[in-house]
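Per-residue structure
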Amino acid sequence: MKSTAELVETLRETGGRITPQRIAVLDAISINESHPTVDEIFDEVVEKQPSLSRKTVYQIVYDLADIGAISLVDVGTGQVRIDPTVEHEHDHFVCSQCRKVFDIARRKPAPPAQDVLAFGEIESVDVVYRGVCRECAVSTQ
């Protein structure tokens, strides 16, 4: 996960403008490991930047994804999530109660079975585990 300074540097390297609005969004992303939705980032940032529009936050997030600073993942929660961890491949665990998303270190994957390869060339593999996180499991006991 990149710090705000690292995200700013990535933006600069790719010719992106550094504005107070972008920095506020970068701050919110860099401190949130729970794979927030864009709307959750907007709700957090608008408190500090009341003039910021939802559309602007979406544009900033999609710009960051376009340059590879973050990735956008669909883990089946109804909204695309921001994944700030782009340095290494990993899987996800989604809590069915609180809907938080956690990174899971990926073990070295086994080579794909021949029947999978019969469909074509594999470009990526996404693994999503579903269950109840420890925090929710403890709170329901």
